[in-house]
Design a protein that fits this description.
By secondary structure, the protein is an alpha/beta fold. Helices cover about 30% and strands about 30% of the residues. The protein contains twelve helices and 15 strands. Helix 3 crosses helix 6. The longest helix is centred in the middle third of the chain and has 18 residues. It starts with 5 loop residues before the first strand and ends with a helix.
Length: about 350
């Protein structure tokens, strides 16, 4: 079973919450935010024992295909799928499933992940992907891995597990979109899981469910099976969660506990980077004195922090951002208010 498994990595988007380091030409997934390697490179290395590069598709913005090919020279060029325009995860995953079905057959198991996550327990992550893939094959189902929450996070969706199928495998009772803090606390206390966006299914099963439940994508997939540009132009943007998972009766969930983080903000790097004895998370040439709980990223320059706590400092040639850990998640508001020559630097 494992020798036939394919992987799909979603690597689109610009990661504006990592401004000013992230740009349309060098977005979050191509930045060395957690380790010394770009996040996409770390992601593909984690996946290799689950599905080798020869059986991995990377879906990305058309403008990033050359950069990804340069970052991952072992990835076959035919496995980099350019999306002519953003059309949501339902279109991306539907197109990927169709490509894999044509190359390897409709029975082929697929695991799907995003390119810009941090994982603390890599062996545990791989084991969860393989278990989800095996369950998808055995049950002819669409399986999601729900992450065991560490706190009540209002920035994530939740999955409420339902009836037991076997072992830890459960049916999904319902999906809950980004709750408020009180509701999130109740969900955590009652055993709900974070909706991680980790999926496993057979190529034919997800294509069948898209055909049955996703009018936003299914007609375009049927009409333009061999024309990516026409397909992505015709598909209506929608998330796979909303378009298929919330509409299908074939959805199962497995819990996963492997130090998962979607690394959504600069502040989140404190939880996934190596930290010093004062709880600072530095990267690059950074000197800290009497400073605590700061996130500091120096790109081609030197940053000295003295007597400050709880700051985010991002410094690169011609631009320095200083904010607080608390405000780091609100960069979209800041960026929208900046003059174009600063925003686009």
């Amino acid at each position: 079973m494992s020798s036939e498994r394919w992987a799909v990595v979603l690597a689109g988007g610009v990661g504006s919450r990592f401004w000013p380091l992230s740009t349309p030409d060098r977005p979050k997934q191509l930045l060395p935010l957690v380790s010394e390697r770009p996040m996409l490179v770390d992601t593909l290395a984690r996946l290799e024992p689950v599905a080798p590069l020869a059986r991995t598709l990377v879906l990305t913005n058309a403008s990033l295909t050359d950069a990804i090919a340069a970052a991952v020279p072992g990835l076959p060029g035919a496995n980099i799928i350019a999306e002519p325009r953003p059309a949501g995860t339902a279109a991306a995953l539907g197109w990927a499933a169709q490509v894999i079905a044509e190359r390897a057959g409709r029975e082929t198991p697929i695991v799907s992940v995003h390119a810009d996550w941090a994982i603390g327990d890599v062996p545990g992550f791989r084991a969860a992907l393989i278990a989800a893939s095996d369950a998808a094959v055995a049950e002819c189902a669409l399986v999601t891995v729900g992450v065991v929450p560490t706190h009540a996070d209002t920035g994530l969706g939740y999955i409420q597990p339902g009836d037991v199928v076997r072992g830890a495998l459960r049916r999904v009772a319902r999906f809950i979109e980004k709750p408020d803090r009180a509701a999130a606390a109740i969900l955590v206390d009652t055993g709900s899981l974070w909706n991680s966006g980790i999926f496993a299914w057979r190529a034919g099963d997800i294509l069948d469910e898209i055909a049955a439940h996703c009018p936003e994508v299914a007609p375009a997939l049927a009409a333009h099976a061999n024309d990516a540009e026409a397909f992505f132009a015709a598909a209506r943007p929608i998330a796979i969660d909303v378009s298929v998972l919330e509409r299908s009766s074939r959805i199962l969930v497995l819990p996963g506990d492997f130090g998962w983080s979607d690394v959504g903000t600069w502040a989140a790097l404190r939880a996934v980077r190596a930290r010093d004895n004062d709880d600072n998370a530095p990267a690059g040439r950074v000197l800290l004195r009497d400073a605590r709980a700061n996130v500091v990223h120096a790109d081609g320059t030197t940053v000295v922090c003295y007597g400050v706590d709880g700051l985010v400092v991002v410094a690169l040639d011609g631009m320095t951002l200083v904010t607080t850990v608390e405000r780091a998640g609100d960069l979209k508001t800041l960026i929208a208010a900046l003059p174009p020559e600063v925003r686009e630097r």
